[in-house]
């Protein structure tokens, strides 16, 4: 039962830091950009992801393989990946720091890159959950 405990401690640390981050965003007198709230959401969703991963491992250790908790974990993991990648793309384009409106070229790039990232995350989930994942290391290195 050590692995669920480690995941639980890490999840509580992520929740604690996300609450501190939101407290600082709400109480500061300095201007706060919208991207900072998106970053706080990424940290919170990461905490949720780790929490459900801990619950999944707890029930695997107790009852054997349970798919319901794994499905919840992978859905939240996918959401976390999308939020993180969107945050990185918006920072890279200068949104909220330099300009508040994306031009057409940047919108097209985001409309292409985000679905590609979703496909990559779904492929990772499929590779991770397959029973015969002996070639996982080579495909993981490719990704």
Automatic annotation (TrEMBL):
Residues in GOST seven transmembrane domain copies: 4-136
Coiled-coil segments: none
Keywords for this protein: Membrane, Signal, Transmembrane, Transmembrane helix
Entry-linked InterPro entries: GOST_TM, GPR107/GPR108-like
Any one GO cellular component localisation term in the record: membrane
Pfam families: GOST_TM
Compartment(s) of residence: Membrane
TM region positions: 6-25, 37-59, 71-97, 109-127
Membrane topology category: Multi-pass membrane protein
Domain of life of the native organism: Eukaryota
Main location: membrane
Protein name in the entry: GOST seven transmembrane domain-containing protein
Organism field: Ciona savignyi (Pacific transparent sea squirt)
């Amino acid at each position: 039962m050590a692995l669920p405990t480690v995941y639980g401690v890490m999840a509580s640390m992520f929740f604690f830091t996300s609450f501190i981050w939101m407290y600082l965003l709400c109480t500061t007198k300095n201007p706060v950009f919208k991207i900072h709230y998106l970053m706080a959401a990424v940290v919170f969703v990461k905490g949720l992801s780790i929490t459900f991963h801990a619950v999944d491992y707890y029930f695997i250790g107790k009852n054997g393989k349970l798919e319901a908790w794994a499905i919840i974990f992978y859905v939240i993991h996918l959401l976390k990946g999308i939020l993180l990648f969107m945050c990185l793309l918006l920072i890279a384009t200068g949104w909220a720091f330099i300009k508040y409106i994306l031009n057409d070229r940047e919108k097209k790039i985001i409309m292409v890159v985000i679905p590609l990232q979703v496909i990559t995350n779904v492929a990772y989930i499929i590779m991770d959950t397959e029973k015969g994942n002996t070639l996982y290391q080579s495909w993981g290195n490719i990704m």
